[in-house]
TrEMBL record:
Organism lineage: Bacteria, Pseudomonadati, Pseudomonadota, Alphaproteobacteria, Hyphomicrobiales
Xref: CDD domains: TM_ABC_iron-siderophores_like
Record's protein name: Iron ABC transporter permease
Cell location: Cell membrane
GO annotations of cellular component type: plasma membrane
Transmembrane annotation, as ranges: 97-130, 142-164, 185-206, 231-259, 271-297, 303-321
Family: Belongs to the binding-protein-dependent transport system permease family. FecCD subfamily.
GO molecular function per UniProt: transmembrane transporter activity
Keywords per UniProt: Cell membrane, Membrane, Transmembrane, Transmembrane helix, Transport
Superkingdom: Bacteria
């Protein structure tokens, strides 16, 4: 555990340093150091301090938030495929922001955050309510199918709003594509606040979530309120996803990939609290490296962050589905 933690911290440090150096213009260590040491106002100082540093911080916070959100969902649903993007939470937050902009015009930063959180919570309630109504006979992938359906419906409604409202289209088109660049810095306070609340919640819920590794009856037998634990955990997952959407727009696959990678970094099966720390660091690393690739692979342009993550996320999802199928047939 300690070795994995140290490895992830060092990797994240390398990723952050690389993010400050790499881009359309590659700067040497001396240039980056002088930017922060002297506080100058030359072109490279402006690029590093006002463009690359904020987007790097955005990537770290978004990656940590989405990965912890995915871990919450996977743990309390016992579904390794659970992820905020695949379960419609991101789409719900985006739909709420687009609808609010179309109805009320210009939105403040606080309003964007509130609408994103409300939309994420509503989408989460809808997905888990529908999957619960279908009953356990739908199997462990039932919630995923419901989530994908709800996400597709909300995405279609969001596109309809943007087609009917040109102002909303111009304002939100770049934001809805997902990314860490050119985002208002105050939004980081919203995402950072959601992350702090969720980390505190993870520490508080960790013993109960560890008990959910048993079946519900056994967990209830040792004093765990299963329904309340699931409700609180899923609410925290939705708040995390909403904060991430407010900062960076809809970003998928990090919440799916990071928890699985974190689990494989330790030989022993860690408790939820320790796994949450490893997962957040893993998600932050994935987000920062994905952001670096987005700048470089089509330079001097910039690739959508969603496309970069899909190159890893889609094969990873297929691998998980195939592995799960093989386990079910006993291969």
């Amino acid at each position: 555990m300690k070795r994995s933690l140290l490895l992830l911290l060092l990797t994240l440090l390398v990723a952050v340093i690389a993010s400050l150096h790499l881009g359309v213009h590659v700067y040497g260590p001396a240039t980056v150091w002088s930017t922060f040491a002297s506080g100058g106002d030359s072109m490279h100082d402006i690029i590093i301090r006002t463009l690359r540093l904020p987007r790097t911080l955005n990537a770290v916070l978004t990656g940590a938030a989405l990965s912890l959100s995915g871990l919450f969902m996977q743990a309390v649903t016992r579904n390794p495929l659970a992820e905020p993007g695949l379960l419609g939470v991101n789409a719900g937050a985006a739909f709420a922001v687009a609808g609010g902009l179309a109805l009320f015009g210009a939105l403040s930063i606080t309003s964007i955050g509130v609408l994103a959180i409300a939309g994420a919570l509503a989408a989460a309630a809808l997905v888990f309510g529908l999957s619960g109504a279908l009953g356990p006979e739908t199997g462990p992938t039932g919630i995923l199918l419901v989530g994908v359906t709800v996400a597709a419906m909300l995405a279609a409604l969001t596109q309809l709003i943007l087609l009917l409202d040109e102002t909303a289209l111009e304002t939100l088109l770049f934001w809805l594509s997902g990314g860490f660049a050119d985002r208002p810095l105050p939004l980081l306070w919203i995402g950072g606040g959601a992350l702090l609340i969720a980390v505190a919640g993870a520490a508080f819920l960790a013993p109960s979530i560890d008990a959910l590794r048993l079946d519900d009856h056994s967990a209830s037998g040792i004093g765990v309120n299963v329904v309340r634990t699931r409700l609180v955990a899923l609410t925290l997952a939705a708040v995390l996803s909403a904060g991430a959407v407010a900062m960076s727009g809809p970003v998928t696959f990090i919440g799916l990939i990071a928890p699985h990678i974190a689990r494989r970094l330790t030989a022993k099966r860690p408790g939820f609290a320790a796994l949450a720390v490893l997962t957040m660091l893993t998600g932050a690393i994935i987000a920062v490296f994905a952001d670096i690739l987005a700048r470089l692979i089509v330079a001097p342009g910039e690739a959508p962050i969603g496309a970069v993550l899909a190159f890893v996320g889609v094969p990873f999802l297929i691998h998980l589905l195939r592995a799960k199928r093989l386990r079910e047939v006993g291969v």
